[in-house]
Amino acid sequence: MSDASQAMVEARGLGKDYGTTRAVDTVSFKVARGEVVGFLGPNGAGKSTTMKMLTGYLKPSRGSAFIGGIDVGDDPLTAQSKLGYLPESAPLYDDMMVLDFLEFAADLRGVAKAGRREKLKGICERCGLLNVLGKDIGQLSKGYRQRVGLAQALVHDPDLLILDEPTSGLDPNQIVEIRQLIKDLGRDKTILLSTHILPEVQATCDRIIIIADGKLVADDTPEALTEGTAGATIQIVVKAKAGAALEAARVMALLSNIPGVRGVANAEAEGPGTLGFALRAAGDVDPREGIFNTAVSNDMVLVGMQRRGVSLEDTFRRLTRGEKEAARA
Amino acid sequence: MRKVAVIARRELASYFNAPVAYIVIVTFLLVAGWMFFSSLFLMGRADLRPLFAPSPFSPSMLLVIIAPAVTMRLIAEERKSGTIELISTMPIRKWEIIAGKFTAAFALLAVSILSTLVYAISVSAIGDLDWGPVAAGYFGMLLFAGALTAIGLLCSTITQNQIVAFIAGFIVCAVLYFVYWLQFFVPPGLASFVEFISVSSHLESMARGVIDTRNIFYYLSLIGGALFVAMRVLSRQRS
User: Fold this and answer.
1) Which of A57, A89, A92 lies nearest to residue B89, judging by beta carbons?
2) pTM, to two decimals
3) Which residues of A touch chain B, with CB atoms under 8 Å apart?
């Protein structure tokens, strides 16, 4: 019970079938209080379905979901009262005015009437809605709709926010604004947000959960997913001496003997008279010192060396594609 | 109960914002008035029975069309626009959603029906009107409208297409309404059954000014049954 109450969100072997289609296989993860967790996956991987099960909208076919230690299946109302949820593409009542809609949400959430106006004003200010309060929701742009959806999730000041693609369909300025807002909110709230925009999670999240084909394939910090993974590349450029082809073969042989180097390939040079190589690092050992020493002792003129970490894109593609190929095989 | 009121208030506001409510009330008042007065002057009696009695050309027949039109969007539209997900993840029970929606649609029809009281008042001005049967008639008419509303709401929960919801609701209501006249063409054993299931026969007896617990029981169980099934449909999450 004690560990269940610590986790704000817990998916325990959660799965969902639509007829014979397996939308979510079995997914287990925890989100601790105060964490901001990014939920990644290709389209159709089961992100939204998982979120719908966590919020009690869909009944899971397998496993169970816990919000603040409460089983969503057993006591959906208590679980739901602890969270604010922004469904995918922010469905809203188009015929209502923004303020009326927020009042309606506050009514259903049981927010006390006393001091409610001030609270709503505060939320609207935070979400940048003050100048559209009297407008019909149906007339709002996508960006404003998304903000109204976010404001609606905040009316009862929940500890937990579950946001399904909060920045989809927004322009770059709006994305930055919403991202900033999520960062602000993350200071005192637990947030689980799904997206397929990778820089977004890197910018906002403490931890990343990746699912592909309904299965969990990664659950780690952004740093671990980008830095820790073996396979960082080091680009080096050396000055070519006479007989470039022979020289290239010699340098390549030298480089591949350096400890910490897993492979060497030809890469783009910086122009005539130079040779470029791309080295793949093996993991724990940083081979850059070895490269330098080898260059000095073998009379190689090193004109450039650059380390490129694995981007989240690389990791994402490797993990999610690998899953698909494995399934196909 | 408080949340039922919150849902009902939102639905009513939506009826009155889009001019649905005014159209329904005015249409009902005018058409019912025309139907009523044309037969009133034929009979030449200070009697409100033509206002309540079922016939293929009567205010109650008009309700068979209006009720599904008023209820068609209640759940279907929420499914279509996706707001069903929003409301389903709020801490509110399914029966509270159904009860709130029912209350709003029923209130609109009740206002339409009670607005015909102006006809009762004008009749009482020109003749000696017995208010007892009038009260029984209105009571029956409200129960009748409640049953149609519950059926219409149930039809709105099974689809995300409002047109489908309307047509399904209209067909069910019309069958329950017109099956009444079949009793004259079917064998006697079946006739009493037909009479029992028809929404019209129960209205007929109340229109005569007779309040029978069987009629009340019939309407209340029809309302309760339809709303219960609607709640079950809503709870059984869609794929």
Assistant:
1) A57
2) 0.84
3) 18-19, 52, 55-59, 76-78, 80-81, 85, 87, 89, 91-96, 100, 104-105, 107-110, 152
Contact assignment for B237 to A94 by CB distance below 8 Å = no
Q: Which residues of B touch A100 (CB under 8 A)?
A: 13
**DSSP per-residue codes, B93-110:** -HHHHHHHHHHHHHHHHH
Strand order in the sheet with A233-239: A261-267, A274-281, A233-239, A302-308
B1 at the A interface (CB within 8 A)?
Answer: no
DSSP structure class, residue A225? I
Taking alpha carbons only, the member of A214, A191, A212 closest to residue A201 is: A191
B55 and B203 Cβ atoms separated by less than 8 Å: no
**Strand pairing report for A83-86 and A160-164:** parallel
pLDDT tens-place string over residues A215-272:
888 888 877 777 654 567 788 888 877 666 677 788 888 888 887 777 788 877 777 7
Q: Is B163 on the interface with A (CB under 8 A)?
A: no
What angle is formed at CA B170 by the lines to CA B165 and CA B176, rounded to 5 degrees?
130
Report whether A180 contacts A104 (CB < 8 A).
Answer: no
Q: Which residues of A touch B3 (CB under 8 A)?
A: 107-108
B20 in contact with chain A, both atoms CB, cutoff 8 A: no
- A-chain residues within 8 Å CB-CB of B77? none
Where chain A has pLDDT below 50, the residues are: 1-4, 229, 323, 326-327, 329
Q: What CATH homologous superfamily does A2-227 map to? A: P-loop containing nucleotide triphosphate hydrolases (3.40.50.300)
pLDDT of amino acid A243: 64
* Contacts A107 to B, Cβ<8 Å: 3, 6
Q: Using the beta-carbon criterion (under 8 Å), do A56 and B89 form an inter-chain contact?
A: yes
Q: Are A261 and A287 in contact (CB under 8 A)?
A: yes
Q: What are the E-state strand segments in A33-104?
A: 36-40, 62-67, 70-71, 83-86
Alpha helices in B44-182 (DSSP H): 49-52, 59-71, 73-81, 83-88, 94-114, 117-126, 131-157, 162-178
With CB atoms and an 8 Å threshold, state whether A87 touches B88: no
For residue A18, list chain B residues with Cβ-Cβ distance below 8 A. 239
User: Mean pLDDT over all residues of chain B?
Assistant: 90
Q: Is B16 within 8 Å of chain A by CB?
A: no
- The Cα-based distances of B155 to A93, B97, B161 in angstroms read 21, 15, 10
Alpha-carbon distance of B20 to B12, in angstroms, equals: 10
The C-alpha angle with vertex B118 and arms to B113 and B123, in degrees rounded to 5, equals: 115
Could you tell me the two tokens for B39? 């037969």
Nearest to A87 among B14, B82, B239 (CB): B82
Q: What one-letter code names the amino acid at B20?
A: V
Indicate the class that CATH gives domain A230-308. alpha beta
Domain with CATH 3.30.70.260 in chain A: 230-308
The radius of gyration of chain A's CA atoms, rounded to the nearest angstrom, is: 25
